[in-house]
Amino acid sequence: MKRRGGYAGFLRGVHRYLLFFAMTAFLVTCCMLLFLNILTDTLHITFTDENIGMAAKLTFGNVVLLSLLFTVIDILRRRRAVHRPVNRILQAADRLIAGDFSVRIAPPDFSGADGCFDDIADCFNRLAQELGSVETLRTDFIANVSHEMKTPLAVIHNYGTLLQQPGLSEETRMEYAGVITQSSRRLADMVTNILKLNRLENQQIYPQATEYDLGEQLRECLLQYEDIWDAAGIEPVTDIVDGVRIKADAELLALVWNNLLSNAFKFTESGGVVSVSLRADDTYATVRVKDTGCGMTPEVGARIFEKFYQGDASRAVQGNGLGLALVKRVVDILQGTISVESASGVGTVFTVRLRRRPHE
Question: Exposed, middle or buried, 45 (CB in 10 Å: 0-12/13-18/19+)?
Answer without folding.
Answer: exposed
